[in-house]
Write a structure and sequence with these properties.
The protein is mainly beta. The chain has one domain (2-153): Beta Barrel (OB fold (Dihydrolipoamide Acetyltransferase, E2P)), CATH 2.40.50. The protein is built from 2 helices and 10 strands, in the order βββββαβββββα. The longest helix is centred in the C-terminal third of the chain and has 11 residues, at 143-153.
């Protein structure tokens, strides 16, 4: 089966996510910082009237930090956790293309080491001389981490 993916760049490497998970791509949007949020959470944005947490892919994937004046895009995605749907933004360096990939062309992630968790990678696709890492957005965060994000972004009701 052929599926469509949105490809993007993080730290010079190519990644992609299934377009069925993508709601929108935003240009360098203002992100409001949230005190005491997990380190990988950049803050929140207003997306169509909803408060959406935004995570920094570089921090989450243990890559070098982004410089303050670097340009970036935010990919707004839906992640399902059981029967719950969770909307979040992913900060990436640059969005590239929408590409079609046949399932038979996706290679498994090679074993690395038992300390390195590759569960969030669905597989690897070779495009010309580049490798594209296909993300499984449902596994980038554990259910516990999604709940921690929700809790850290909830505001107590004013009296």
């Amino acid at each position: 089966m052929t599926r469509t993916y949105l490809s993007f760049v993080i730290c010079g490497d190519l990644y992609a996510v299934n377009v069925t998970k993508v709601l929108e791509v935003l240009q360098k949007e203002h992100i409001t910082k949230v005190p005491n949020a997990p380190a990988y959470i950049r803050g929140i944005i207003n997306f169509r009237g909803d408060v959406v947490p935004v995570f920094e892919t570089r921090t989450r994937f243990n890559l070098p930090q982004r410089l303050a004046d670097d340009s970036y895009n935010i990919i707004v995605i839906d992640v399902s956790e059981g029967s719950d749907m969770f909307r979040l933004g992913a900060v990436v360096d640059k969005v590239k293309d929408v590409i079609s990939i046949d399932d038979t062309d996706i290679k498994p992630v090679p074993p690395m080491s038992h300390e390195f968790n590759t569960d969030f990678l669905q597989g690897i696709y070779k495009l010309d001389d580049d490798f594209i890492m296909l993300l499984n957005v449902e596994k980038v965060f554990s259910g516990q981490e999604l709940n921690e994000m929700k809790q850290s972004l909830e505001t107590p009701e004013s009296n």
